[in-house]
Design a protein that fits this description.
This protein has 477 residues and is α/β, with parallel strands linked by helices. It has helices spanning 2-11, 15-38, 47-54, 57-73, 78-99, 151-154, 193-208, 224-229, 231-237, 280-291, 320-329, 339-342, 345-353, 387-395, 397-400, 417-421, 426-429, 431-435, 439-447, 456-469, and strands at residues 101-105, 110-114, 118-121, 126-129, 139-142, 160-164, 175-176, 181-183, 216-218, 251-254, 257-259, 305-309, 333-337, 357-361, 377-382, 404-409. It is built from 20 helices and 16 strands. Helix 4 runs antiparallel to helix 5 (78-99), helix 9 packs across helix 10 (280-291) and helix 11 packs across helix 20. The longest helix has 24 residues, at 15-38.
């Protein structure tokens, strides 16, 4: 009877008092969880290799379980912490502890992990997870691509089926591996370097880097051109050849598996959400290691080099030669990056790494800024009607990559659209009224039809500002 009385007393506690105490308890729990989860599980970067080479099978599986747990554990930073405690900590991680299997879902991502042995049939792309006590008899269909919200992408990505529970008989193992698998698709938006990095390469780094190369990639929708283009990256994330399901139709057995990739944002890593606390600066260091790039920070003693991304089909600099003449007059060594130069990623990464300023109209080519040294300057030429897209794609991510960022916003007189529509048309005087009609209209008008005739005198002022960010001054004229 007294227990029920206590409950009634608790119901009378003012709501404001409970809400006011929430931040305190969240902070307290954060400190406790940090002590328990981080302080007691600090793992040196070579720990996985040590475990793999010298530990017992049980220790190996325990460490694998720890690595998998960090992928579904979620978000450490305070803004999400209380939501995480309610929605995730009592669900995903508890489920993984109890059954060895759990999934993470958010707006962008579908990701499931198993810290228990799995069998993957590459013919049907089915992941078989043997029965464990307490495991729900439920099957799942996972889109193994980082951005599930784009419908057109969903149509180009093969789904992976996960069968869990009391499945009998299990398909026999044809290949047995000692390290876990990470399954992701190279379909989607491959062919566009911005989406290749934002949707696949960076999510792959986020998801797999903490395994210290002790994992195997299985890649449905195996795109040979894409896989060849980023071979150096894959070889630095995994010690093994990538498995192409179409070319290797068989049943592979692994001690665990990850299906899907974590995604944070455009060209971005949210450090507190990553198992090892990696940032975009760590990702850039990883790129330097992968491509054997020599320059980490800018040297102020060398002549500054400016690389100009030259476009040929849309958002073209119509007076590019005039721009180059002006840039050279400012004292730059100029590299004009034509499409044939940018085609070879291995060579172009080294070229960009030697530059102190990258200039280009908004477009995928600006993604090459990931190879710039820290302290370099990214100058984005932003056309009419695309200010928000340009800022979201490159303006916001640039500081996280250790770069200075400058926007050069086009005036109506510099846009080719004025000759197509006239200076008084809403396309020119009120772009918002056009872009509000949807992305298809925005793309057709402002991304597909727009070229630029740069006001060289005005653009010179932008480059003088860029020089100032490099600690240099422009020559007197």
């Amino acid at each position: 009877m007294s227990r029920f009385s206590d409950c009634r007393k608790m119901e009378k506690v003012p709501r404001s008092l409970v809400l006011g105490a929430t931040p305190f308890f969240c902070l307290l729990l954060l400190a406790l969880l940090y002590t328990v989860e981080i302080g007691s599980h600090v793992v040196p970067s070579n720990q996985w290799k040590k475990t793999h080479s010298g530990a017992t099978q049980i220790e190996h599986q325990d460490h694998l379980h720890f690595l998998m747990k960090r992928l579904v554990k979620g978000f450490f930073f305070f803004f999400y912490f209380c939501i995480f405690i309610i929605q995730h900590y009592g669900g995903n991680q508890t489920q993984l502890e109890a059954t060895g299997f759990a999934c993470h879902y958010d707006f962008h991502t579908e990701l499931c992990v198993s810290s228990r042995p799995v069998r993957i049939d590459t013919l049907t792309m089915t992941v078989h997870i043997p029965f464990n006590h307490g495991m729900p008899q439920a099957n799942r269909i996972i889109l193994p691509y980082a951005k599930k919200e784009d419908e057109w992408i969903r149509r180009t990505v093969s789904l992976v089926q996960i069968l869990q529970g009391n499945i009998s008989p299990l398909p026999p193992c044809e290949y047995t591996h000692n390290d876990p698998a990470v399954v992701f698709s190279s379909g989607g938006a491959t062919g566009n370097i911005f989406h290749e990095f934002s949707d696949i390469i960076i999510p792959l780094f986020i998801t797999s880097r903490h395994f210290q190369s002790r994992l195997r990639f299985i890649v449905p929708d195996f795109a040979i051109r894409f896989m060849s283009k980023y071979k150096k990256i894959f070889s630095h994330l995994s010690s093994y050849e990538v498995i192409n399901p179409a070319a290797n139709v068989s049943v592979h057995c692994f001690p665990g598996a990850v299906v899907g990739l974590h995604y944070h944002d455009n060209l971005a890593i949210k450090t507190m959400e990553v198992p090892e606390g990696y940032s975009m600066l760590d990702f850039k260091q990883f790129l330097r290691e992968s491509y054997n790039l020599k320059i980490r920070d800018l040297s102020k003693t060398e002549k500054p080099t400016l690389i100009l991304i030259s476009r040929k089909n849309k958002r073209v600099f119509m007076n590019e030669d005039e721009m180059v003449t002006m840039i050279k007059a400012l004292g730059f060594r100029v590299i004009v990056a034509q499409p044939d130069l940018t085609a070879n990623m291995d060579n172009f990464a080294e070229i960009v790494n030697s530059c102190s300023i990258l200039v280009g109209a908004h477009g995928a080519g600006l993604t090459n800024a990931v190879f710039l040294p820290e302290g370099a300057v990214l100058v984005q030429v932003v056309g009419l009607g695309i200010e928000w897209i340009a800022n979201t794609a490159f303006g916001i991510p640039a500081p996280g990559m250790g770069l200075n960022y400058i926007e050069y916003k086009i005036e109506p007189e510099e846009s080719s659209l004025i000759s197509l529509y006239g200076k008084d048309h809403p396309v020119i005087v009120d772009p918002g009224s056009i872009t509000s009609k949807g992305y298809e209209i925005l793309r057709d008008v402002y991304l597909e039809k727009q070229n630029f005739n740069i006001d060289v005198a005005r653009f010179r002022k932008t480059l003088v500002n860029a020089l100032g960010l490099l600690g240099r001054s422009a020559p007197l004229v």
